[in-house]
Every structure is written in C-alpha cells, then in structure tokens.
Amino acid sequence: MMSGTLRFVADDLQIMALTFMGIVYILRIRWLLRFKPGQERQAPTGSPDTSSFKGIIYSWGNIAMPWAMESTRQKLFFYAQFVLFHLAVAASITMSFIIPYAPGLIKPMVLVRGLQGLFAAGCLIGCYRLYRRLTNPYIRQISTPDDIFSLLLLMVWLFVSIGAAPNRPDQGEGPLLIYFIMTAFFLVYVPFSKISHYLYYPFTRYYFGKSMGYRGVYPIKRGPQPKPNKV
Amino acid sequence: MLEKARSHKVKKVIERMGKKLNRQVVGSLVACVHCGMCTESCHYVLANPDDPTFAPAYKADQIRKIFKRHFDWTGRIFPWWVKAQDLYVDEELEKLKDIVFGKCTNCRRCSINCPMGVDFATLNRMARGLLTSVGIMPEGLAAVSKDQWEIGNQMGVLKEDYLETLEWLSDELEKEMGDPVARIPIDKMDADVVYAINPREIKYDPRTVSDAARIFYLAGENWTMASDGWDITNFGFFSGDDELANTVVRRLFEKVIELRGKKLVLSECGHGYRSARCEGPNWTGMDTPFAMESSVLTMLRYIKEGRIKVDRNKNDLPVTFHDSCNNARSCGFFEEPRELLNLVVTDFREMYPNRAENYCCSGGGGAMSMSEYTPLRLKAAKVKADQLQATEAKTVVTTCHNCVDALTDLIRHYKLGMKVTQMVNLVSNAVVVEEKVVAPVEVLILRGYKILVVDDEPDILTFLSAVFEDQGATVVQASDGEQALDLARQEKPDLITLDLSMPGKNGAYVFEELRKNPELAATRVCIITGKPELRRLIYDRPVRPPEGYLDKPINEESLLVNVRKILEVAHEERKLN
Lengths: 231, 577
Description:
Chain A has helices at about 5-35, 50-60, 70-75, 75-100, 110-135, 135-140, 145-165, 175-190, 195-215. By secondary structure, chain A is mainly alpha-helical. Helices cover about 70% and strands about 0% of the residues of chain A. Chain B folds into four domains: about 10-135, Fumarate Reductase Iron-sulfur Protein, Chain B, domain 2 (Orthogonal Bundle), CATH 1.10.1060; about 145-305, no CATH class; about 310-430, 3-Layer(aba) Sandwich (Rossmann fold); about 445-575, Response regulator (Rossmann fold). Helix content of chain B is about 50%, strand content about 10%. The interface between A and B is large, with 65 and 73 residues.
C-alpha cells in the first residue's frame, strides 16, 4: 500500500510535470515550425533507386544501423554503450508509468533483476561518459554546464531507479519517493536541456534524409573496399 | 547598467542571422548533443590531433553560441548554462572568419557522420555568408568574387581572350582531324548541348577544352559553347554570398535559354556542378527548360551508345579515383565516374574510403584561393596523401578542377610522385579515331543558308555546289555575270561566291554592281579566282571590299572554313544590329 504522499508524487505530480513538459514541447515545436523549410527545386540526382522517401527512412533508421556511418562503424563498443544507456533511460521512463498504473507488469523477480541490471549498466555507462566528457580534450572543449548536468542527472536517476524497480513501498517508501520526485524534476527540466535531442532527432534526420535521398547520397553506398595497408 | 556597445558589423551579422535561418539550419543549431562522434571524420582534426578547436562540433559551436544567445530560449535567459555568447567587436568576427574559412572546407564529411543529422557544412556556409555580407572574408576570395561580379567569370578572363583561345583550340582540332567541321561552335542556336566550363580551363588547362571538343566532334554532337555566361564556377557558393551565387547561376541559365539549348553540359568541376545542377534552381527559383548533366555522364553515354569508340589499353598505368565532395557527398554523383573509368583504363584501383565517405582533397570550399591558410590546408591534406599513397597508383583522376589543383599541391608537398588528370583527358586519350569521320546531319554547318555560286566553268560550279549542299546549304548557280546579278536580286542569297574571269560582265563588274545596289550591298561576297593578280582590281574599287578572297585551285576544307567564318561574322553582326 502506498502512502498518500507517495501516491501524490507517483501520480499527480507526474501528471503535472508531464503536462508542463508537453506544453513546453508544443511551444518548442511551434517555434521550430515557424521557420520555413528549404526546398529542393532541382531534378533529383544520383541513383534512380533512391528517393526522398527512402532517404528519410534510411535517415531515421540510422540510429539502429551502426554500419551506416563511419563514426559508429569504427566505434562499435561506443555504439553498444549508447544503445544500452538509452535502453536503460527508456526502461526507467516506462517504469515510472507502470509502477502507479500497472504494477503487476513488473512483479516477476526475474524482470525486476533484469531492470536493475539494465539501470546499473546505464548508470555505469553514464559514469564513463561523464569521465570521458571531463577528460577527453575534444569533448571537454565543447561541453556546457547543461551537458554535464544532464548526464549527471540521468546517472543519478538511473541509480535511483535500481532501488525503485522492486516497487516495495512496504519495505520503505524512500527509494520510490526519491525516484518519482527525480522523475518529475527530470520531466520539467528536460525541455530546456540537451536531453530534448530526442524531440529534434526526427526533425533533423527527416530533413537531412529527405535532401540526401533526393540527391542520391542516402542510402550510403559503399563499394568493395579492400582494407589498405597504409590507411 | 549600461549596455555594452556593439560594432556596426556585429549588429548587422546578428540581424542578418535571423533572416538566414530556415528550419533545417535551426534544426542543426539546436540538435547537437556534443557527443563528439563527428570529431574524427574531419581531416583537419586528423592532422591536428592535439588541437580540439578543429573538431567540427567546436567549430559549429562558434556559430551556435551566437544563435543561442539571440534566438534560443535557454541561451537568452541562462547563457552561461549552454555556453551561449554574445558578440560585440569586429575582432570576434575576424576570429570567426579564421574558423569558418580557414578550418573547414565545407566538405560535409562530418554531416554524414553525425548521429543527429546536424548538417555542419550548411551552418558553416551560412556563417561565411554573414561575414561576407559585412566585408569580412579572406582577401583572395574577395578578389575572385569581385572578378566574378564584374567580369562575369572568376578568373577575370576577358571575352576577347576567351574567344581567341577557343579559336586557336579550334584551329588545332581542325588540323588534327583534317576536317573543317572540327571546330568549337560559338553561340550556335538550338544546339543539343551547350557546354560550359571552369575559367581555369581557358587560362591554365585549355587541353581539357580541346579534349572535350574532340570528343563532341567525334560523337557527332550538335553542340556549342557560349560567348558569355560560360563560367560554371561559383564563388558565391564558397563565400556564402547567396546574391552572387544566384547571379552567377542565373547568367549561366539565361544564356542557355537565349541559345535555346536543349541540355547544359557542365565540365568536370565539383562545386560548379553542384552549384548549377543541385543548388542553382534553389538559389534562382528558376524552373530550367533544359536538362543539366555532368560531362562525365555525357561521355559515358557516348560510349554506351556507340557514338565514340574507346580503347582502354591506351591508358594502361594504374589509376585511382578521387571523389569530389560536392559531386559525391552532395549530389550522389559517384557511380558514373567509376563506370566510365572502367571503360577507359586498364588498371583502376579504388581508394579507401571512397564515394560519399571519401576525404576532402583539402582544397574545397574555396580553400585554394585563401593563401593565408595554405600551411593549414597542406597539413590537413595528410590523410588524403596517405589515401593516395596506399593505392600505389601512378595517376589520380578526379572530376573537379579545384581537386586537381589541391591534389597537385599536396602531391608536390608530400612528394608522392603522382600525376593528376581528369576524366576528359583519359577519354580523349582512349578514343579511337576512325580514318575519316563522316559528319552527321546534326553538324551541317551551312544548314539554313542560301549561297549563290557564280562561275563560268561547269566543273567548278558543280564542285562548289556539291560542297555547299553537302553541308546543308541551298545553292543557286549562275554561269555568267548577268545571270548572277539577276539571281542575286531574285534570291537574296546570304553569300555569293564569285569568279572574276567570266565572259560578258566579269566578276569585278558584278561585284561593284552588287555593292552599289542598296538592296544587295550587304550581301556577303567571297571572290574565288584563278588569277590572284586581279586582287588589286577588286580592292582598289571605291566600294566595301569582299568578305573573302580565295585563290584557285581550292580545296574543300579551306573553302568551308572561309565560308563558315564569313557567315558566322554576318550572323554576329546581325545580332548586334
């Protein structure tokens, strides 16, 4: 049984935070749509097998195709970290809905342990990413306080998620209270932070893919490329 | 608190940034997550591993922070939180200039390696345009842009020099082919192909023009070059000056429309191809009534259609191919050059990486005209040098003049001992020239003209008539002076070939009568005589001299060259009047 306070933070507070986030995002999207999109008036170029549509699909699917870009192809371990980290974040967001509305879905202990493992992995990757951000001169140079704070926030949130995953208020509401309060803060902060990149991803990828598909660049084509000796 | 004063130029840059933003640009400005995945895709980074200011994300951030400070929520309220930054003085713009012009070639390699789809090259071009609009740009780029604005081409080639060069290239081609038809047509109306080039070809590499002319001739193409509006390069594209970019492309398009050309064929120039073919319709807002293609595609088609035959054994040294960034990464033009190469060389070796993933030659984005950044450019060319060396090829082929210069420079700098060439040179070298090329119907040089042939010798009359008719002219014959004058009045020919020694009214008399008749005075006359000593008789007359004077015996080639020249000049004069 949840206390009134826990019920409030797990339910009402989340709805308020979500509503706030939704409103800010609507305003943000409206702002983005105020800018006119550039047009492609020229006849299409490149292979006749490609098109704007294929370019868009390819561009959106890029996230799931580590072989598509040299930057991910050559850093598969880094890509795996990215996948795991984002899966952990997505799982924790899902869990914030399941606990108040369908707690039965994460009752089986094996599932709880799986989630905890995922959150722990996400948290560790966050630690590594933070270390990289602070030590790699290239990344440190471009990092903003927002970049660092957002990463820190997610790390701590994933860490707290480990304690919340069993959903056992009877054994103490502390972990759940912290988890939901953090989730609410997260929802309110996200629209103003770099974490909003998931909102922009479909936009940037749509337009880039549309143009690159129309111009015959997407899907990227690589011919037989024998590994050279010197490069 | 007093607001810090902002320079006039800075004010303008900020104001104009707001006008330049479109949805794609704003998306790229807000979406960067600073993940650093783009870092190693940049050739500047690879050559300067200890300097993080070369990272594409860092360079983009120098533009992004201005945007954030003035146009984005968080940056306006909490600038320090997202490293938004204001600009105040011109020195800050100068620093930005060194980044957007000196540390990036707009090659777009980082754009295709960004997981978020941030198109840094587009941001960079926008920033260049903003700086250019307030006069902050590399001097070399400014000088070249000025030439393109004022003279109409980026190398300041004067029209007379351009036409003269084409003339001697024509003479050489004609000599080589032994055919008077083998010339470069200028401003020919209704041609199937209008061929436009990079001014560098005229000034430093005319061989590419003569090779192209050779190929067009052998393919029996109905083609022409324009007397103006022929420059496909575009320094507005490099400087980000959309107005210049638009003007340059418009000149090119309008000339093709004026000539009623069916297709604009663009010579091998990477940014020229992209500017005209892929960006031109967007800058000008024009729906072009003609098709556009790269000359690489044209040559490939000629071979496939059997219009020219090639023997690839003529190019038997190992060859590698460098993809121009503008062709491959921004126009998807990378398979056709390979298909063509495989038809004209015996040993083609792929470079790694290639196509859209190829590294920049280091001379892109107008870098070859920014001498202040040359040491930086050559240092950044190291990865390209390594790429080239790894192929162990003797020759590198590219479809871009900028790349030719940059590759030549880096080959010299890194002592690679390679040669740089273009597709047109290889095709021209591989082409098989038949014993006698029969000019097809499309190249009938006298089509549409009416010629009055006047001679008392039936053999000469028949010979001249046959030559002119073979070239599409309508021929009217007269065997004496009286008949000649009658027919001239009736038929109003474009040209009269006139013998001097004829029974009755001789040629000199007929010529003077023609000139004195206001209706016929403008008719072009070419004297053809077996008595060269009579020349004085003609030139001493108090009338305008004849347009041509040929001595018998006469051969077909010189006859056609002279007659064609006379008619072309007449055509030009009519246009001017």
